Amino acid sequence: MYVKGSNIKASREVNSRLASLLLTRMLPLLSNGSGSESSADVRTSKVRAHWILLLMKILQPGLQTAPQKPALCPLLITTSQTACSCETLVSSLVREQNRGTVEAMVRRQRPRRLACLALMAVLLADLLALSDTLAVMSVDLGSESMKVAIVKPGVPMEIVLNKESRRKTPVTVTLKENERFFGDSAASMAIKNPKATLRYFQHLLGKQENNPHVALYRARFPEHELGFDPQRQTVYFQISPQLQFSPEEVLSMLLNYSRSLAEDFAEQPIKDAVITVPAFFNQAERRAVLQAARMAGLKVLQLINDNTATALSYGVFRRKDINTTAQNIMFYDMGSGSTVCTIVTYQTVKTKDAGLQPQLQIRGVGFDRTLGGLEMELRLREHLAGLFNEQRKGQGTKDVRENPRAMAKLLREANRLKTVLSANADHMAQIEGLMDDVDFKAKVTRAEFEELCADLFERVPRPVQQALQSAQMNLDEIEQVILVGGATRVPKVQEVLLKAVGKEELGKNINADEAAAMGAVYQAAALSKAFKVKPFVVRDAVIYPILVEFTREVEEEPGVRSLKHNKRVLFSRMGPYPQRKVITFNRYSHDFNFHINYGDLGFLGPEDLRVFGSQNLTTVKLKGVGESFKKYPDYESKGIKAHFNLDESGVLSLDRVESVFETLVEDSPEEESTLTKLGNTISSLFGGGSTPDTKENGTDTVQEEEEGPAEGSKDEPGEQAELKEEAEARAEDTSPPPPSEPKGDAAPEGEKATEKDSGEKPEAQKPSEKGEVGSEGVPPAPEEGKKQKPARKQKMVEEIGVELVVLDLPDLPEDELAHSAQKLQDLTLRDLEKQEREKAANSLEAFIFETQDKLYQSEYQEVSTEEQREDISGRLSATSTWLEDEGFGATTVMLKEKLAELKKLCQGLFFRVEERKKWPERLSALDNLLNHSSMFLKGARLIPEMDQIFTEVEMTTLEKVINETWAWKNATVAEQAKLPATEKPVLLSKDIEAKMMALDREVQYLLNKAKFAKPRPRPKDKNGTRAEPPLNASTSDQGEKVIPPPGQTEDAKPVSEPEKETRSESADSEPLELGGPGAESEQKEQPTGQKRTLKNDEL
């Protein structure tokens, strides 16, 4: 920011002027102008104060070298030593500015610097506006509870506490006609109103009505009425005839609530978030979460798999333990709704930008969608319901399972019972008033619980086997098995898992509840532009392979044409992502269609395939292929290139489809430059589909005419290995990946050569443009060089129209998405209005009770008459009666008006009491300041004239302020003593503070002037002798003699101006680092009359 050059004197002058001018220009931006702030602007005040402190730190070197140092240094000392508020700091700046020192400097600035300084002021002003949106958040969406974490300046990776000061919040929403409840409030409403309380609704995301999970949800929670959406073939919650919400809308409400918790905790607005999703979520489920976040107004930086977030959290906090040796760690995560087993490899890799950095790679994943703590609780609930029915058998009562409230109570007790049985052999389950005011009490042992869930415990090893199979590893290669998730605390789960993995013990050295949230928020900080974190390379893996299918005509025999179905693997199973791929169709010259589907899902069982849903993703219809061929009839077609992208969230998208053509163009001196620029411009605008771009994006080219083996054949592992190499090269930014190899049968040699030539076009093009020497090293003659130039390849790209037909689950149309977002926003505004009204009513009621109590306190009775207290008491009683009778229907505005009237009525009484409380402390502080100021003035006047650093005007001004303050204090105290206590006081605390500030300003000015003043030069003795030099003075210094100019004797007094020039010259010889306070102290210690010649090696 500062100007640095060889001329140190000029550099310091520019720095000091820059510092002064920035102070002047930034005052209007950093101050409020009102002198006071409301409670709602406290956060903005803190931000202003932060930027003022930052500005002072930036300008400190310039201020230290500025000529107005005595005037500006008090400001620096105040800023660094006191935690003053924004208003105090701004007022201090204004007072220093009024002295004229800064304004005088501004008037001497050169006009050419104003543009740079104005730009700097605008940038700082933008930083003030952006500083309120620096925080990012993460949301770990579990089936039963969620955890929210934030990162903001000064608060690295912190779990957000909810309104009940808990670190995790139930994923529960209660929807009623006029109000909504979230978290713990909604969980408590589950017993009172189970139909309106929605839980475990994430299991319905991205599911059509015929999905087995929808039927399972109906069986688990029969109190919920699920409607059918014929347009999307999905279900929605029918709360009442007027209230119906889709699972995406309910999730959007919960995300909005989580953002409100994060904003309250961070004290600033937040829009950027990273959301965790289960690793087994398919494309439809991931898109549903993104739509819910869009409804909530959140900017999703990434959908991160919860197992990847857990692995990232584990690696971040153990960065020092990761080295070049690969470490294989297994994470077994059993939560409330599902179980996921993940094998992760940690090791350090060499990256191009950051050097050697740690990396985690997902090697294998296994899962069970329904194995979790919820199923265990449902088994316990069913057992408790049977016990309660047996206790009431023969009494003619109905089944407890038909009572939704009773079943909600039993589910809550089953949750508690499962937790207690994890640490105890037996426990007594008891519920008061379970049904029909009948209490329930029964003893349950751990053995009974394990017998109820015996089939569930048998499924515990299956995810481990799936993960090992997908990673192609065995248990001997696994170094440690770490438990994650709440359900892993069940002893039987740990026993079965330990036996399955064959280890001595299971790792429990990670926070099972918060690891995913912490890893996700670290990724959020890494993706945000507002933070800089230590790099940690993350390579996630594709769970479900994706392929492209298309049909084309082939001529097997002369005159006989038939249709052939082709499959090309786009993203293989366990391949890394994010990743981009390009597929080329070479045999099409007219409009055609191709399909994007899931690949081989043989690793899923029959039931998992039914839950998975549709295996067909999208049908792509291309329009404009034939027109592109007609547009370039003389060009050679290089195929139709489709660009695919599997982004960081694991969501597949088709970026664009292009028709690429190529022709040979003879270069001429006149047209070479123009054609080259035109071709390069078009290629850069449309991506070009060239081989360098393809390699950079980690893509692979598959030629359409190749008849490769079907998906899942022996060639697929080779392609999988190649994709991993490409993703690794892109993640590590090392050498470019090898050129892509086509899949399937080999293409003709001529076609391969053409494709290779097109890929090498940029490299072959540059020598011909620049006219470089040939391979022989001999430059050709000018005429011969033109004749021998090879023909250059020119590429043309034509955009192809694309129509997508979604086959798995249609997304919400834009109008319905906007309608849902507006509906949720209206509900949020209604909730805010309700909260504001409740806050106003509580404030009014609290003010009435507090004031009625204060009227009987002695300190209030001393400053008020009996009539005043009776008047206030009557108004308070009337308002309290109105609040009880009509307050229920009162609006927020009416409640605030009532509160304002009562505060105005009691304002005088409260003011008198507060002033009397402040008098002793303020008057004592004023007396101390006056005494100290008088002592300081007396000491300043005793300084000898030769060493005096204060002027007579300055000391006279201080004496005048001291006398005026004494006189004001004595007169005001005497006048106040004559007034009765019930009258408005004339001795005000704010006046005392103003007098103290005025006196303290004058004293601080003189103190800082003394601190930074330099001693005056001593005049020579009248006898012509000089003072003896110090003993440590060098011989050259003692022998040095100054020859006076003609007409001047040695006794003459030295002229001050040459001394300034000498000091300036010595300053020019100093390094820039010596221009601070340390250099000035060294100059003060050296006598003025002694000078030392600086050598060249000392500069």
The overall pLDDT, averaged over residues, is: 76
Helix content range: 40-55%
What is the strand tally?
29
Which spans of ≥5 residues are poorly predicted at pLDDT below 50?
A: 1-112, 686-787, 1024-1099
Largest sheet: 6 strands, mixed
Cα Rg: 40 Å
Shape: globular
Beginning-to-end CA distance, first to last residue:
24 Å
Q: How much strand content do the residues show?
A: 15-25%
Number of helical runs? Answer: 36
Overall structural class, as computed from helix and strand content, comes to alpha+beta
Brief synopsis:
With 1099 residues, the chain is an alpha+beta fold. It is built from 36 helices and 29 strands. Helix 1 (8-30) crosses helix 5 and helix 32 packs antiparallel against helix 33.
Q: In terms of topology, how is this protein built?
A:
Layout: H1 8-30, H2 42-64, H3 69-81, H4 86-98, H5 101-107, H6 114-130, E1 136-141, E2 145-152, E3 155-159, E4 169-170, E5 172-175, E6 180-182, H7 184-192, E7 197-199, H8 212-220, E8 226-229, E9 234-238, E10 244-245, H9 247-266, E11 272-277, H10 283-295, E12 299-305, H11 306-316, E13 327-334, E14 339-351, E15 355-368, H12 373-391, H13 404-421, E16 426-435, E17 438-445, H14 446-452, H15 454-458, H16 462-471, E18 480-484, H17 491-501, H18 515-527, E19 537-541, E20 546-557, E21 560-571, E22 576-577, E23 579-585, E24 593-598, H19 606-612, E25 616-623, H20 625-631, E26 636-646, E27 652-665, H21 672-686, H22 691-696, H23 715-732, H24 749-759, H25 761-770, H26 782-788, E28 792-799, E29 801-806, H27 814-854, H28 858-862, H29 866-885, H30 892-905, H31 907-941, H32 952-978, H33 989-1012, H34 1035-1039, H35 1056-1068, H36 1077-1085
Parallel strand pairs: 1-11, 11-12, 13-18, 15-19
Antiparallel strand pairs: 1-2, 2-3, 2-4, 5-6, 5-7, 8-9, 9-10, 13-14, 14-15, 16-17, 19-22, 20-21, 20-24, 23-26, 24-25, 25-29, 26-27, 27-28
Helix pairs in contact: 1-2, 1-4, 1-5, 1-6, 2-3, 2-4, 3-4, 3-33, 9-10, 11-18, 12-13, 27-29, 27-30, 31-32, 31-33, 32-33
